[in-house]
Design goal:
Order of helices and strands: HEHHEHEHEHHEHEEHHEEH
Number of strands: 9
Structural class: alpha/beta
CATH architecture: Alpha-Beta Horseshoe
Number of domains: 1
CATH topology: pyruvate-formate lyase- activating enzyme
Radius of gyration: 18 Å
Shape: globular
Helix content: 25-40%
Largest sheet: 7 strands, parallel
Strand order of the largest sheet: 1-2-3-4-5-6-8
Bound molecules: iron/sulfur cluster
């Protein structure tokens, strides 16, 4: 394999045939509730990336049971990672986070927890809580960066900076839980130089996995209006595959790749349609790695 599949990272931690079950912990996001901004990231509709975005009122135990049943039946899963995917999974009081995470971890066959969040929702108290949990279970914190360029982050209304990402990584380093970095390629105003520089900007920190996907246009978002006006052009598949190869060359081989394309529901996706074809992207990616005679981490200094 030219890149490190995430399953290899999980297997090294004894998590074989483990699947992530998406959960809604009842959280919102400071970029939506007015604390940092309103309206959210220009591409954001949580329903497009989280199948449980509408499950706020469903008890965690029920969400976990339903998700695990589905994965046992359809995917042969035996153990599960409770995945707080919707909105910002650390955006609540420490007491509430502790209770919500504990409820998920108490369900049958749950072998760990994965929490998606923003850099500005990672406080010292959150890091302390995750460090404590990591002493008894597998914990991964997924931090959305998207781009290392503040100008880009402003253009997509992320309402945080690269420095805030760095501060969150510093805060979490060496605490015994895993870190996953989330990147998006094809953001407005960016070019291959930006993608390469963003991957290189991660060098100061140790992280354990990445999620990378192309920016895709979802119905009803600010980005969809920009796309309709002709102000935004999504990447072509060939452009994305080249950019992704550039990025993976600059990410250490010890880092597992959790995601390399998008999976928005077809009824919500405006463009590009190719991003749902995971097998097509994977086969082009393998071809590009072979053409360059390269591999993940080949350009790590
Ligand atoms: S940080 Fe996540 S949940 Fe919040 S607005 Fe952006 S994409 Fe949406």
């Amino acid at each position: 394999m030219y890149f490190t599949p995430y399953s290899k990272i999980l297997a090294a931690r004894g998590l074989i045939r483990a699947r992530k079950v998406p959960l809604h912990g009842g959280f919102t996001c400071p970029n939506l509730d007015g604390t940092k901004a309103r309206g959210g990231c220009t591409y954001c509709d949580n329903r497009s990336f989280s199948p449980v975005a509408g499950s706020r009122a469903v008890p965690i135990a029920k969400q976990m049971e339903d998700g695990a049943d589905y994965m046992r039946t359809h995917l042969g899963a035996q153990r599960f990672i409770a995945y707080f995917q919707a909105f910002s999974g650390t955006y609540a009081s420490t007491e509430r986070l502790r209770a919500v995470y504990a409820e998920a971890l108490a369900q049958p066959d749950v072998a760990g927890i994965s929490i998606g969040t923003r850099p500005d929702c990672i406080t010292p108290a959150v890091a302390d809580l995750l460090e404590e949990m990591a002493q008894s279970t597998f914990v991964t914190l997924e931090i959305g960066l998207q781009s290392a360029f503040d100008e880009t982050l402003r253009a997509i209304n992320r309402a945080h900076t690269f420095n805030e990402f760095g501060a969150a990584m510093d805060l979490c380093a060496g605490r015994g839980f895993d870190l996953c970095v989330h990147l998006i390629l094809g953001l407005p105003g960016e070019s291959p130089e930006h993608y390469r520089a963003t991957a290189e900007a991660l060098r100061p920190w140790e992280y354990h996995s990445v999620k990378v996907h192309p920016l895709h246009v979802v119905k009803g978002t600010v980005l969809a209006r920009q796309y309709d006006r002709g102000d935004y052009r999504p990447l072509e598949q060939a452009e994305y595959v080249e950019a992704l190869t550039d990025v993976l060359e600059r990410i250490p081989a010890s880092v597992g790749v959790q995601r390399f394309t998008a999976d928005a529901p077809p009824e919500m996706l405006v463009a590009p349609q190719w991003c749902r074809d995971k097998n097509g992207v994977l086969s082009d990616l393998k071809r590009e790695f072979a053409r360059r005679n390269t591999r993940q981490g080949a350009r790590v200094a």
